[in-house]
Specification:
6 strands; Alpha-Beta Plaits; 4-stranded antiparallel beta sheet; alpha+beta; two-stranded antiparallel ribbon; Arc Repressor Mutant, subunit A
């Protein structure tokens, strides 16, 4: 029998969490392998996956790519955004509007001096700066922004980006 709980405030079973965690680590795991890893019937795993997809617990299956190693340079920036909350909707409408821009990879409501953190990518620093100056900063509810260009990614979405190579430091001699 397939457990009925997955999302929507219902209790998620231990097996459902286990399947979701395994998929989060490797989206290429087949239902048959998931079934073997969790000691469940394949049909039950399939049903859990279909339900998780239908209810939005699984949004998509993802591959993390190190674009530097794939030969494509990308510029990443973390932009802090100060927003005037709007009556009845707070930060929601501004965050949703920013999230619709293709340059915005992630948008988060955060605590602290700024209200939103936006992870942005572009082909050049100029392109990211143009996005901030022409699209983001002019939004009516945006009071200010601070842009932090990411100089090097060591870990992204749980994956080490450099393949486990150790830091190469020269010895210090006196």
């Amino acid at each position: 029998m397939v457990p009925s709980a997955l999302v929507g405030g219902e209790k998620v079973t231990k097996k459902e969490k286990e399947i979701l965690r395994l998929l989060e680590k490797d989206a290429r795991i087949s239902p048959a392998k998931l079934a073997a890893m969790t000691d469940m019937p394949v049909a039950e795993v399939d049903a859990i996956l279909r339900k998780a997809e239908a209810q939005g617990a699984i949004l998509r299956y993802k591959t993390v790519i190190n674009w530097d190693r794939a030969g494509e340079q990308q510029v990443w920036a973390l932009i802090e955004v100060k927003v005037t909350p709007q009556r009845e909707v707070g930060f929601e409408s501004t965050a949703e509007r920013i999230a619709r821009f293709p340059q915005a990879r992630s948008v988060y409501l955060v605590s602290g001096t700024y209200d939103l953190a936006v992870l942005v990518t572009g082909e050049t620093m100029h392109q990211v700066a143009a996005f901030v100056g022409e699209k983001l900063a002019p939004l009516e509810s945006v009071q200010g922004t601070v842009t932090h260009f990411i100089l090097k990614r060591f870990k992204d979405d749980g994956e080490l980006m450099q393949g486990g190579e150790g830091t190469q430091r020269l010895p210090i001699s006196l």
